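Researcher: I'd like a candidate sequence for this fold, 107 residues long. If you have to choose between options at a position, lean toward the conservative one.
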């Protein structure tokens, strides 16, 4: 069942304009518990080498989350954390981070 969910998630992520369904409010709570130490409370990391998930498209975040458990980077903790999250929790965290509005100003 998990591989079917993962396949559907990856298919949805590959299609432009397709959002991954999730509960952003529940995702915010889970992100504060599991993700904030490295990625910041609103998805903006303090460490320059840590990804900033805030404002990224849901499909991109879903693909990234699906890949985390398979990564072979021992210095990174997100693979370990991602393995502990259910598919629903990943959907929720993805919904939370993608709902954050981020703006940039050119110098």
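Model: Candidate sequence:
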């Amino acid at each position: 069942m998990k591989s079917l969910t993962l396949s559907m998630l990856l298919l949805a992520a590959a299609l432009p304009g397709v959002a991954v369904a999730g509960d952003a409010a529940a995702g915010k709570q889970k992100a504060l518990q599991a993700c904030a130490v490295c990625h910041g409370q609103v998805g903006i990391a303090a460490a320059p080498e840590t990804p900033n998930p805030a404002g990224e498209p849901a499909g991109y975040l879903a693909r990234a989350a699906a890949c985390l458990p398979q990564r072979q980077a021992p210095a990174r903790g997100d693979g370990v954390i991602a393995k502990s999250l259910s598919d629903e929790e990943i959907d929720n965290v993805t919904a939370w981070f993608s709902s954050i509005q981020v703006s940039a100003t050119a110098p």
